[in-house]
Fold:
Amino acid sequence: MSQSTDSTGATPRPTGAEGGAGSGGGRWGTGGTNGPAGARANLASVARRSIIKLGGGIANGIFGFVLVIVVSRGLGPAGTGAFFLGLALFTIVSNFAELGADDGLMRYIPRYRALGHTQDLRRVMQIALIPVAAIGTVFAVLLYVFAEPLGSFFTHGRHAADLVPYIHVLAPWLPLSAASTVIVSAGVGFGTVGPVVAVDNFGKPGVRPLLVYAVIAAGLGATAIALAWSIPIGVGLVVGGVWLARLTRRAERVDDYDRRAPVSPAGPMASEFWKFATPRAFASVFATIVAWVATLMLGALQGTKEAGVYAGASRYLIIGGLFVQALMLAIAPQISALLTTGDRRGARAVYQTVTVWAVMFTWPLYLALAVFSPLFLAILGQKFVVASTALTIGCFGVLVSMATGPISAVILMSGLSMWNLLNTIVGLGLNIGLSFWLIPSHGIDGAALASAISFSIYNFMGVAEIWFLLRLEPVGPGFGVVTAGATVCFGGLLLLARVLFGTDLPVFLVAGTIATLLYGVLILRFRHTLHLGALRDAMRARGLGRANGGPGEGSADGGRHRAKPRFDR
Structure:
């Protein structure tokens, strides 16, 4: 068993990814997960957080899509391109300013609590947030100063005046956005998705379409639109900060730790934290660039109109990703604690089951989008239907991603952040190289193909790494059932309907209803293999809406046995 002396000055303990079997059960309910009851408790815990986050993810997806409709119908393809190019630049730089501290807190908060070092929570949050605020301010100044050359480059030198106002208005909000992301991620580290759902899924995305619509309807320009989109960032920062303070106080009150123990020295803690977080900072920004690179490359190589069409169409690909993000946020503290205490069997069970759930819920969606892409794109406006082939290509790329499950969460929470950095560098390099090759000759379709290929290789690399390094694999019981069932019901049946009757809305509704009924029967037939009982238990659990220790909340047992908070409460 590999061991090291940590920053708390405690006796040697298992490292994050290599805790051996003899490391004990931990303090957060990870012990005993090798048995069926413990495994079911782990799955029920993940299911509770996943259901809450999924509800928030669905809301976020709806709000986000409404925003796309508002922008695309209000500004047209060229205006939509300028809006999303500005948003892309802001998102990438803001993500870099987070410095990986969001994932660092998601890993180290449950880690310190599991090891009985709750007295170190406040210090580790300070270690995370102070550099983020400082670097975010520097990046904001640079983004503002270089707005004009960036605008000229990413609009193919023709529509810089359309993009620059977005950059100028968004730049000052950059440090606030980075700090807000780190704060709500810290809430996930406490085992609750409440802050993320309230701030990032309902609050900010819910207000933005209303504000942007009001501005566009009033006939105001890019400056007002950017300001309308930005204002919710500040409100979210305040709400998230208050919530995090309450979560911290609650943990200090209920955790089982030595309250007389001194806080660990800042130097060793910072060294340990940033050793993990720094590679993640680069990995995170590379992953964000990968997500936006097609839009940016289309803007740079062909112009804002093509970038706007692709940006609008590709928003459909985000919908299922919200479900996987929900699983990632739910699984992250669980995987961290399980691997810290050496419970690889429990980690494997959780990972495989949530992968099956991801496929079960998202494959039908993406297969339907792939087959009926012209119908869905017409919602944005007839000028966006030209991206139907690109949307179909993108959907098949996402199917591969869903089949690997929340792979990034497993890699990061096992402490393998350098491997995640390698994966994202390779993925980004492939995407940029393929974009330079394919976009000039194939335009929007080439951008979609470059993204699909690079994302698939990125995910396959992650699967190979956790298989060889951690002996974890995504394919478990029920995987074949959901993949085959979704392919036949939503791929085969909907494709047959399109060939015979076209892509009109009534055709989709009838064929989609039949496919859903058949698929539902199949899922019910294999409900035990798919561990749907864990989802049922989660939905029946008392306090579902306040699961896992939201601020001021009681635990699921009504507040009894508060001395040892557990993931399965």
Remarks:
- Residues 36-97 form the longest helix (62 residues).
